[in-house]
Structure formats: C-alpha cells, structure tokens
Amino acid sequence: MKITGLDIRACALRRDATGRETALRGQAGGQRHDFLVYTLRTECGRSASMFGFAGASAIGSAHLAKTLEPFLMGRNVHDREGLWHDFRLRNRMWGHFPIYIWGPLDCCLWLLAAEVAEVPLYRYIGAAREEVPVYASSMFLNEQEDYVTEALSVRAAGFAGYKLHPPGHSVDADLEIHAAVRAAVGTDYTLMSDPVAMLTLPDALRYGRGLEQLGFAWFEEPMADESLPALRELTRQLDIPVVGTETLAGHPYSLADIVARQVVDAIRADVSWTGGVTGVLKSAHLADAFNMNCEIHTAIFHPLEMVNLHLCAALRNCTYLELLTPVSDFSFGLVGGLPIKDGIARLPETPGLGVPLDWDLIEDSTLEVMT
Q: Residue 56, exposed/middle/buried by CB under 10 A (0-12, 13-18, 19+)?
C-alpha cells in the first residue's frame, strides 16, 4: 500500500471571548485554536487523517508539513520503522522541523495499518487494558477561587484527579493555591502540580516539599527539561515523584541517559510532540526497561487525544489519560466526542481510531488546503 499524496489543511477554530485565558499562555490568547489536518492518501484509495499541532501559525506550519510530501511519495505505509529513521536523518540534514511536524504523519501510518487489519488501534499495537482513568488538567487561572471551583467541578464529574498549572507569581503564592485546593477536595483525591516553571533548585526544593506536605501525587516540570543536573538533584532529594521530558526533542534518544541516571522519576510523551505512535512506544518501552512510568502528556486536540488513549490502553507503565479543562473548550474534532463517562475512557472496538473525525467542523475551520 504505497503513499500517493499528502494533503494539509491549515485550520483555525474561533472561540467566543470568555474573559479567561483558555490557552497555556499561547499566541492566540484563548480566542482561537490553530491546528492542522493531515491526510495521507494511498494508491488503493484508502486514506487516513489526523489533527496536528500548529504552534504560532497554522499557515506557516502547514507549509512546513507539506514539504514532506516528496519524502513520503511511493513509500509503503507499513514501513513505519524505516520512515521513522529516514525522517530522523532528513530532519538532521538541515530539515530542523518543529517537534510537532512528524507525529500526525506517523499516526496516519498506524491508523491505515489498523484499519486494513480490521482491529482498533490499541489492539493492533497490543492491548494491555480496555479502560483508562482520566484526569483533568487546568489552564493558568487568575485567582485561587478559580482553581478551587474547577477542582470541585472536576471531582464531581468523576475524573480520577486534577492537575494544577499554577499562575507562578511566587512559590509561596502558588503553594497557598495548592493548599486551598487540597482543603476543598479532601485528602483522598488525587492532585498533581505542573508549574511549567524555570525555578532555581532551592526554590524547586521548597516547592516540592510543600507539595509533599499536601499529599500531591507528582511534581511536574519544576525546571526546564534540559536542566538535567538540577533535576537529578531535585529528584534525589524529594520524596514526591518528579516528572518531566515532554518538551525535549529527539525522543527516545534524548531520554536514554535521563532514564538510566534517574534524572526524573517518570517521563512524559505524547503523539503530537514525541513523533507519533512510534515515538511514544519507543520512549515508553525505554522507561519500562527501567521500571519507570511514561505518563502520557496531553496532545490538546481531541483527535490526537484519541490516539493518546489507544496508547494508554497499550501500555502497562502509564496511569492516566490527561485532558485539558474546561474540557468543553477542546471537545471538537470528533463526531460524538471522546468515549469518556464518569472519568473513565473506554476503548472502542471499531477498526482504527474508532471515532470519526468531524469533517463539517474541519471544513468550517479551514483557512487553506494544500493538495
């Protein structure tokens, strides 16, 4: 089954102004979601499509993605491993693509193969479970009360946990917010913290010890993922698990020494920034060889989250699926939405992705089509 074409749509979904920031301090400021839609076409008439991250510009990212068409033409969709390594070389030879460019293409390759095999993607990979607990992950909110209200809503909706992205005004102010959320939800509810910070080691130690006293489940990205010596020392001194690596390019190779030297307690990967299904599997299996978890990082857009879900169901060393909240702000792109009820995602048994893309929404959101 040879590849005959790559179509790229640059898309933007506009959102009504809500008075709150619904993007992680992104370019669009919460007013629109820029994204791509990749469609890989084959000689037999089959095709597969997947959403893609677009960074600061859907148009700019679409043009970059489209340049990969000559590289793909004539290749067999089943040659995923060969394509993975050939793209790695292509990227090194002055390609230097953003980390989010290859992932959707790799997802399309896996989806085509699963559809031909007439099995859902997670079973094609190799199933480990049929249900996955889901936790909700906040945006950067303005006030302590905003976090408390959202955490209570998330708990009431049945989600398995709530992760704070605190505003980052100061260590003490952030810890006060974490303490208020803990007091509101009780001691038996799972909470995580992700400051997305560039803290000094002393501040990160103080922050982490405060989270330990509050019974938080993990401490994520307290320093830049490249800060390996400081992260290793932080991990050594804290009891709370330190989690990181989602922003590093070059998975799994960039993770090998991190995992072997226990720079963090658990790594992060996702199909958008880690190079698709192939990249996540390589990273997760590396971690598994060291009895370490690979916690799947949100891919933001729900079609990509659906692929993340299939991977969660195919991995034993992953605990949860992560979704950004308010979930309604991101619940577009799939007909009928993600298969989640009472905080549990249940895998579909239809071939491939298992949920169709919402082409009406895609058409309405398209800025430019590159065929």
A: exposed
